[in-house]
Each structure stands twice: as C-alpha cells, then as structure tokens.
Amino acid sequence: MSISSPITADAAAHVLFHYGHDGGYQAGSFTTHLITAIDSADVSNKARLTLGFPEYVAAVNLIQNHRDGADRLRAIVHGEAAA
Which of 44, 55, 65, 67 could be 11's S-S partner, Cβ–Cβ 3.0 to 4.6 Å? Predict the structure, then answer.
C-alpha cells in the first residue's frame, strides 16, 4: 500500500469514527472539528490544512476517494499496513 502522506493509527481511527465505520474511536473536540473542517473544505483550503495536519488530510482523502479507503484505514489502525 502506498499513501503519499503518513497516516498515524490515531488519525486513521479518528477518521473511521467520523465516517461511522467500525474500527475507529472518537477524537477530542479539536480533532473532531478539524476532521469536519477537512471533510467540508474546498481544494484550496484542504491544501492549507495539509500544511499543518497532513496525516488527517491524507486519511480523509483516502476514505473519501478510494473504494477500499475504510479497509485501508482499519489496516493502519491494526498495524497491518504501513501508512
């Protein structure tokens, strides 16, 4: 598996939870708002958010744009895949 930005197990779990998938867990309030912002950001603002939070933007992009994104994030959470 090749993902352009490292996704941490925490970021993967938080994004899974945000999208209602099994294998995740809820983040704190700041991170919950951050994921919501990334989820709703346009291309320009998502690029800006990538500067500070690349692992979260990569995780959101993975789940939004890849059919197997949730499975790939679950693999990261369980240490079965390199981020």
Answer: 55
Q: Which residue has the higher pLDDT, 1 or 33?
A: 33
Count how many domains the chain has. 1
Nearest-angstrom CA–CA distance, 52 and 25: 22
Task: List all residues 6 or more positions away from 73 whose beta carbon is below 8 Å from its beta carbon.
Answer: 7, 12, 13, 15, 16, 21, 23, 24, 59, 62, 63
pLDDT in tens, 20-53: 999 999 999 999 999 999 999 999 999 999 999 9
